[in-house]
Write a structure and sequence with these properties.
This protein is α/β, with parallel strands linked by helices and 627 residues long. Helix content is 34%, strand content 15%. α16 links the parallel β12 and β13. α19 packs parallel to α23 and α20 runs antiparallel to α21. The structure holds 6-O-alpha-D-glucopyranosyl-D-fructose (ISL) and calcium ion (CA). The site of 6-O-alpha-D-glucopyranosyl-D-fructose has 12 residues, from loops.
């Protein structure tokens, strides 16, 4: 048990401690070296508390210790041979159905639209799909607020359409995983409606607290602004919602809830889906008592209360139970969305000997140290390099990482790194090169293969996302001008990723014959699937070539990895090898040309430049050699 006598280096030796400290350093933008300096490493918590002159309250230390002491296990780091499975070899493609393809002209993407485009995906080389939620929903958060887990959202089609999709995928030898959103349901789910009508059985399905209207149960903040509690006068209770007011958190301590979830997951697996992506799955176990979040931690991590549920006391138990009762019976695949989880905690959630999840999405690579999504700044690719090197070298063979830069919750990566138009295609290809030649499973987000960039939103009425709209209001209330607030929303809005997929240069980008639910700017006139498929030098073709190479050479999936000239700034190079097969990647992460190693151009099999020069890496040049 760690106590306040524990030294910083002892905290760092604890798996949760290591991840928490790394996270804090990232958040404040301080290098790890500082922490590992003996002077700092030997400081005890007690000492730090004294040195902080009351700025770090006693409660802060108690919180940290409680969290660290809650984990009794250490991840295994022994040498084990890598196990091969389909999901390690897969090239996943995330579809945001609402914005992918509309088949009936109502302005909204749908299942028939996805079916229409399966050949497009097959042609690109995709082997597995992840669909964002397609279940019945009032769409307060575009389907992440589910009102019936076993029905298809009417806007997206019918169960027959879904079954047809499964048949069409089988024909093409493609797999599919669904989104599993079980931290919360919609407030329009029958369970919640029964709870509101006074049914005690269903009240226990949710996290409801007695109390008067002017006494909110605790200080937890919602991820979508304001308090995480909503008052329900009809039952005189407060209900917890970590996300929108219409997304009520389920009470996982109730065995019936867990049974319902396992049963529902089994039902979909029996239908023939291959697995699930588990939405904010690390939030399902809340510390009993629901005590106030620490304000200091809250300010640091942006959301007060998070330490009470992002790695809760029964998380491992719930995951094991769900795997045993549902996933394992179908040998189904699971990837958890786990915001805030670091490398060691990820090991404890996904080790192949742990029987919990298969893989997780960690988010620490998405912003450079000291930044959050809504900051307007440029992303330095040298950080991505360090982040990836750390994982590739320290994530042993019991674990497997997901590789991604984009999803439906984040702006486009090219725009974050360098929005200058002359670098757009080069950067798009460079990002693909990294993602498809490393050890891990790539998840390509729709449109990434076209080199899409952020949308040129003009005013707040152009946005649709509940997070953006709530945040805008909150910023205005805090005294910001509408211009300042808009600037922040523009930097981080999730809507950048949610505008219609551009299929061709006809009206509304060929997405719909009607009026799209969210407008896209004119970028599609040049960047669209049809014209990129015609142009052999496009970002699309580069992705297609990379995917083919990865599929034809298991070395690019399972091969050992060695980094070269690791310290050289803006230079990113690594070897992938497996027996006699050897691939070498060499990349310029910046806009200044670099002198490169004297590798012979005759070994070059792919470059994002037409005429690569010997020993010279042009701006953002990315090369793949086969030796
Ligand atoms: O946008 C965020 C909060 O500011 C992200 O942290 C995001 O909400 C978080 O990663 C959880 O995302 C998932 O669950 C949400 C849903 O809105 C997202 O679209 C989903 O990916 C609630 O279900
Ligand atoms: Ca439609």
């Amino acid at each position: 048990m760690l106590s306040k006598k524990a030294k910083v280096k002892e905290l760092y030796a604890n798996p949760v401690g290591k991840d928490v400290l790394d996270k804090v350093l990232l958040q404040v933008g301080v290098s790890k070296k500082w922490l590992l300096n003996p002077l700092v490493g030997n400081l005890s918590l007690e000492r730090i508390e004294k040195m902080s002159f009351g700025k770090l309250p006693e409660s802060f230390f108690q919180k940290i210790l409680k969290l660290l002491n809650s984990e009794k296990d250490l991840p295994k780091n022994d040498d084990t041979p890598l196990k091969e499975t389909w999901w390690k070899e897969a090239v996943f493609y995330q579809i945001y159905p609402r914005s992918f393809k509309d088949s009936n002209g109502d302005g909204m993407g749908d299942l028939r639209g996805i079916i229409e485009k399966l050949d497009y995906l097959k042609n690109l080389g995709i082997t597995a799909l992840w669909l964002s939620p397609i279940y019945e929903s009032p769409n307060d958060d575009n389907g992440y607020d589910i009102s019936d887990y076993k029905k298809i959202m009417k806007e997206f089609g019918t169960m027959e359409d879904f079954e047809l999709l499964l048949v069409e995928l089988k024909k093409r030898n493609m797999k599919i995983i669904m989104d599993l959103v079980v931290n919360h349901t919609s407030d329009e789910h029958p369970w919640f409606k029964k709870a509101l009508a006074g049914d005690k059985k269903y009240q226990d399905y949710y996290i409801l607290k007695d109390g008067s209207k002017n006494q909110v149960p605790n200080n937890w903040k919602s991820f979508f602004s304001g308090s995480a509690w909503r008052y329900f006068p009809e039952i005189k209770k407060w209900g917890l919602h970590l996300f929108s007011k219409k997304q009520m958190d389920l009470n996982w301590e109730n065995e019936n809830v867990r049974k319902e979830v396992s049963q529902m997951v089994s039902w979909w697996l029996a239908k023939g889906v291959d697995g699930f992506r588990l939405d904010v799955i690390n939030y399902i176990s809340k510390n009993p008592g629901l005590v106030n979040g620490d304000e200091f931690v809250g300010n640091l991590m942006e959301f007060t209360g998070i330490e009470e549920y992002y790695y809760g006391p029964r998380l491992h138990e719930y995951l094991r139970e769900l795997r045993e009762n549902a996933f394992s019976k179908y040998q189904a695949f699971s990837v958890g969305e786990t915001p805030g989880i670091g490398q060691e905690m990820a090991k404890l959630l996904t080790g192949d000997y742990r029987k919990e999840l298969d893989m997780v999405f960690n988010f620490d690579q998405l912003e450079t140290p000291g930044h959050v999504r809504f900051d307007d700044y440029l992303y330095d690719l040298n950080f991505l390099k360090t982040y990836l090197m750390n994982y590739q070298e320290n994530f042993g063979n019991h674990y497997w990482m997901s590789l991604f830069y984009e999803n439906h919750d984040n702006p486009r990566m090219i725009s974050k790194v360098n929005p200058a138009p002359e670098y757009r295609d080069l950067l798009g290809k460079l990002l693909g090169m990294i993602q498809l030649t490393l050890k891990g499973t790539p998840f390509i987000f729709q449109g990434q293969e076209l080199g899409l960039i952020n949308q040129d939103f003009k005013e707040i009425t152009d946005f649709r996302d509940v997070e953006s709209l709530n945040k805008y209001q909150e910023l205005l209330e805090s005294g910001q001008s509408s211009l300042e607030a808009l600037k922040t929303i523009l930097a981080g809005s999730r809507d950048h990723a949610r505008v219609p997929m551009p299929w061709d240069n006809t009206k509304h980008a060929g997405f719909t014959t009607g009026t799209p639910w969210i407008l896209r700017d004119e970028d599609y006139l040049k960047y669209n699937a049809r014209s990129e498929i015609k142009d052999s030098s496009s970002v699309w073709h580069f992705y297609q070539q990379l995917i083919t190479l990865r599929k034809e050479n298991k070395t690019l999936v399972y091969g050992e990895i060695h980094f070269l000239h690791e310290k050289r700034k803006n230079y990113f190079s690594y070897l992938r090898k497996n027996g006699k097969d050897e691939f070498l990647v060499e990349i310029n992460l910046g806009t200044t040309p670099l002198k490169s190693e004297p590798y012979l151009l005759e070994h070059l099999i792919l470059s994002n430049y037409d005429q690569p020069k010997f020993q010279h890496l042009a701006p953002y040049e990315a090369r793949l050699y086969k030796i």
